[in-house]
Structure formats: structure tokens, C-alpha cells
Specification:
This protein has one helix and eleven strands, in the order ββββββαβββββ. It is mainly beta. The protein has a single domain, classed as Lipocalin. An eight-stranded antiparallel barrel has the order 1-4-5-7-8-9-10-11. The longest helix is centred in the middle third of the chain and has 8 residues. It is elongated and about 55 Å long. The two termini are 34 Å apart. It holds the Pfam family YceI.
Amino acid sequence: MTTSTTYPQLTGEYTIDPTHTRIGFVARHAMVTKVRGSFNEFSGTAKINGSDPSQSSVTVAIKANSIDTRNADRDAHLRSNDFLSMDEYPEITFVSTSVRQTGDTSFDVTGDLTIKDVTRSVTIPFEFEGTAQDPFGNTRIGFEGSTTINRKDFGVTWNAALETGGVLVSEKVTLEFEVSAIKAA
């Protein structure tokens, strides 16, 4: 598919602004509801080529122990060896391998996601939300995207059977990204 919209003015290097970015997830719990959470500590950079998005790239590093589901006991369990084994694997990383423009404002970012030392290729569809000059003179860009992974593919296998059938925690986990990034001066 050929698209005519390019963004040459956006070309440059960007740093993800953690105070205005959310890296979150959603998993089904007990087959009847959803648990939402996020990671509060992460860093990332992007090299954007607005004229040729295929030349763009992104890297993100997430501190596994910053997981936050608004429940201390659940968070402690998620940090344990049952799930993220954060003492042994303190970081979750994503390094892009390709960026493909799929529409005027949509992009597929494919890359290597590493959780618990297991690396798998994932594609995250992103929507470009726009650019703005903030009150401090920074050029900001925004992107939103999500993708669903199977946590068992990354060695996150703990579960408990329910008496009524099914399991306590879904295998499928939706990863959510609401990103604000600041262009380097």
C-alpha cells in the first residue's frame, strides 16, 4: 500500500517522557473480569525518519519491579518467580527491527520483546496522535498502540485451575502503549 502522507518535520531523535507515557497491560482474572496494570519505571528512545518511516527505530527498557496493579499483594506475586522473576530478570526490553507505515497516521512497529530472557518478535500497530510544541519549547509527538501476546511464550506460565472450570489468569495479555516523546534539541 502506498501512502502519500509523510512527516519530514518530525525527523530526529526523541526520548520517551515517562511522566506523560503509560506502558500498561490487561489480563483476564478468574475468567470473569480484567486486571489492569502498568509499569512505572522505564526509559526509551526513538529515531524518527519522517520522510522514510522504514528507517525509524525505537528501544524501550522497562524495570520489571515497577509493576503496579494497585494491589500490593498481587504486585508482589507478579514480581515473584511465579511470574516475572524480577530478581533474576530485572528488565523487560523491546528493540524494533522494522517500522512500516500502514496508513496516513498508522504504523506497524515490529521488534524483539524480551521477557525473562525469552525473546520473541512482536508487531505493535501504532496510531500517530500528533505533534505539539509544549509550553517549555519542546517538540512532542504522541503515539498509541496495543498488541496481545501469550505470556506462556515468554516463560510466564504460573496458573491455578478454578473449580468452575477455566483458570485464574488468562494466557493472553494485552500490552498497551500511550507514548509522549520529546525531540532532542
